[in-house]
């Protein structure tokens, strides 16, 4: 019997019940922490975020090395996974598209990677401004769990992928057992305090651990991916299963 917690439909900051209100709330949270977002990411992950971005990019080296491949980095934030993907692209490759709904986060991405072969786009991951079959690879790093409806988000990614296109979602996870207890203590109690003190945005760093607790566990997420139509769905756990990469193929 599956004893994992029930899957929530999507992100819900405290006090929000509708998808529209939740989306607006999440956008405001990320706009508020954008100036200190990179520093806090590196600090609170103990520098492991850089390793995870590179590892994710390496997982898709085959498609990234094709100059004609079209790549979308969804919920790209300040652009660090986008940059890791770009390092594996040929010099004459199609530009990567980095999309996010937060103006402040995209402004940081444009500033950090001003000369990169990237098209930075402000947009809604739930309603992507692209026709069916527009991309060969869609990735996301620690942003997918902020969507207000996970199943619909997967369906939208599936829609914009070409047949044979790949999905790669790098996302946090709540480990089980003793590891889960220790990780939960850090994530639920230490991270919100440190993040709030450094950023001055305590509400944002209370939301972030809550969003991980709400997010589907690997078995559930893989089931949702299969339900969305993805084949060869798999999860590669990182750092004692505290994070991991979900992969799948649109046949």
Task: Provide a brief overview of the structure.
The chain is of the alpha/beta class and 251 residues long.
- CATH homologous superfamily heading: Vaccinia Virus protein VP39
Order of helices and strands: HHHHEHEHEEHEHHHEE
Give the CA-CA distance, first to last residue.
30 Å
Q: Sheet bearing the most strands, described?
A: 7 strands, mixed
Q: Average pLDDT across residues? A: 89
Tell me the fraction of residues in β-strands, as a range: 15-25%
* Alpha-carbon Rg, integer: 17 Å
- By secondary-structure content and strand pairing, the structural class works out as alpha/beta
Structure write-up:
α3 packs across α5, α7 crosses α10 and α8 packs antiparallel against α9. The chain has a seven-stranded mixed β-sheet, sandwiched between helices. β4, α7 and β5 form a beta-alpha-beta unit. Helix content is 45%, strand content 20%. The protein has a single domain, classed as Vaccinia Virus protein VP39 (Rossmann fold). The mean pLDDT is 89. With 251 residues, it is an alpha/beta fold.
């Amino acid at each position: 019997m599956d004893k994992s917690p029930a899957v929530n439909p999507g992100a819900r900051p405290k006090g929000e019940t509708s998808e529209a209100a939740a989306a607006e709330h999440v956008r405001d949270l990320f706009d508020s922490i954008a100036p200190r977002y990179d520093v806090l990411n590196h600090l609170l992950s103990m520098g492991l975020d850089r390793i995870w971005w590179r590892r994710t990019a390496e997982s898709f080296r085959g498609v990234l090395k094709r100059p004609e491949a079209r790549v979308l980095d969804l919920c790209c934030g300040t652009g660090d996974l986008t940059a890791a993907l770009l390092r594996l692209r040929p010099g004459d490759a199609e530009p990567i598209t980095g999309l996010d709904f937060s103006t402040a986060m995209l402004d940081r991405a444009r500033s950090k990677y001003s000369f990169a072969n990237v098209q930075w786009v402000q947009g809604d991951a739930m309603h992507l401004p692209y026709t069916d079959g527009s991309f060969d690879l869609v990735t996301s790093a620690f942003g997918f769990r902020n969507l207000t409806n996970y199943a619909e988000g997967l369906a939208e990614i599936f829609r914009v992928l070409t047949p044979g296109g790949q999905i790669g979602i790098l996302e946090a996870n709540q480990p089980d057992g003793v590891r889960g207890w220790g990780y939960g203590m850090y994530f639920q109690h230490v991270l919100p305090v440190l993040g709030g003190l450094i950023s001055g945005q305590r509400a944002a760093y209370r939301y972030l651990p809550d969003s991980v607790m709400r997010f589907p566990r690997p078995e559930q997420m893989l089931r949702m991916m299969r339900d969305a139509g993805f084949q060869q769905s798999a999860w590669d756990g990182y750092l004692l299963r505290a994070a991991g990469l979900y992969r799948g193929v649109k046949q």
